[in-house]
Automatic annotation (TrEMBL):
Gene Ontology molecular functions: magnesium ion binding; terpene synthase activity
Lineage: Eukaryota, Viridiplantae, Streptophyta, Embryophyta, Tracheophyta
Metal-binding as UniProt keyword: yes
Name of the protein described by the UniProt record: Terpene synthase metal-binding domain-containing protein
The Terpene synthase metal-binding domain, residue ranges: 1-203
Amino acid sequence: MFMTKVIALTSTIDDIYDVYSTIEELELFTNAIEKWDASAMIHLPGYMKVCYKVLLDVYEETEEVLRKEGRAYHIYYAKQAMMDIVGAYFVEAKWCNHGYVPKMGEYMRVALVTSGYTMLTATSFVGMGKIVSREAFDWANNSKLVNASCIIARIMDDLVSHELEQKREHVASALECYMKQHGVPEQVVRDEFEKMLDLAWKDLNEGSLNTINNASIPMDLRIRAVNLARMIYVIYKHEDAFTHSSQKLKECIDLFHGYIGIKVMGLDLRVSSA
């Protein structure tokens, strides 16, 4: 449930930075997130206060549960991951406000954070109990596997949403950054990004199977980053199904309606619940 709430909140916060706020309001909100204290709410506009309070409440109620289990430190890492993504959102908002198009290296350093997948990987660990260690959270923030997942999320997102987002005021996408830096047409960039995605999938597969380099990180944790990449592949394979969720994404969800999952001898099976 915590993961679901964080995804919903992140989507709302993303829209606050992308669509609804002035740069001055965003600076206030970013500062409030960095403080992570209810007292910071007094400086926020009304609509931001609502989001900020819900954010604090969601993390606080989960922290109370984890404290009883002796794992309150899980929330520390989850909060830090949220602070990181909000800080990166603000960088992108300033780029957009100034009409700045960064070079690819500068763009990707920020855009991999705003892909959300480092944050979501850490968030997915919060309720997983004893198999999660401090080392696991550090791994989520600094591993080849999670980085590959972030690359897949960012590039696939930018490939399908580029045209729509540039019809309104929006931060430059990876395509724009690459085209401006290298002076090449869009199709050349798309071809290069497909190669980048191929390499990222190889890194993802290697990271998920290579027990030598990831021996201390259980497969149950590594598979979280893999599954996030699988999810984004479905959402952005042909179109922006996240933005247009009432169509393609709803069809995907409907495929699971009326079914329950069971595991037999290590194999996942589905049987009708009707």
